[in-house]
TrEMBL record:
<dbReference type="Pfam" id="PF14552">
    <property type="entry name" value="Tautomerase_2"/>
</dbReference>
<protein>
    <submittedName>
        <fullName>Tautomerase family protein</fullName>
    </submittedName>
</protein>
<dbReference type="InterPro" id="IPR014347">
    <property type="entry name" value="Tautomerase/MIF_sf"/>
</dbReference>
<dbReference type="InterPro" id="IPR037479">
    <property type="entry name" value="Tauto_MSAD"/>
</dbReference>
């Protein structure tokens, strides 16, 4: 149940964006043991000069996950590998052009609705 922000170049097709969103979600579920119905994604389309990844000028994706602390390093490494492998296959992004960051937080840092910290019962 991470909150995933995915940044892609502007002008890509709906199928391209859907492929990225679906592949990232599948990787989260398969490698980090999140429930299948926990999908929280925001996808931003950026002008080329607003999505800078060092000197890479071709197709690129940058994503950031925010999630509760506790996933083991091996699960995160498996996630990174699965994402770049999947995105290379569909929609065809070079693994060297995918950047992934993860930020962990605590149970109190989440409210899904109603202004309540659902992970922290009273």
């Amino acid at each position: 149940m991470p909150f995933v922000t995915i940044n892609v170049l502007k002008g890509k097709s709906r199928d391209y964006i859907k492929a990225i969103a679906d592949e990232v979600n599948a990787a989260v579920i398969d490698t980090m043991d999140f429930p299948e119905d926990d999908r929280y994604q925001v996808i931003n389309e950026c002008e080329a000069d607003h999505l800078q990844l060092q000197t890479r000028a071709e197709d690129r994706v940058m994503m950031h996950l925010v999630m509760r602390a506790g996933r083991p390093d091996h699960a995160k490494k498996a996630f990174y590998a699965r994402v770049v492998e999947s995105l290379a296959r569909n929609p065809g992004i070079d693994p060297g052009n995918v950047m992934i960051t993860i930020t962990e937080n605590r149970d109190i840092d989440w409210s899904f609705q109603d202004g309540v910290a659902q992970f922290c019962p009273e």
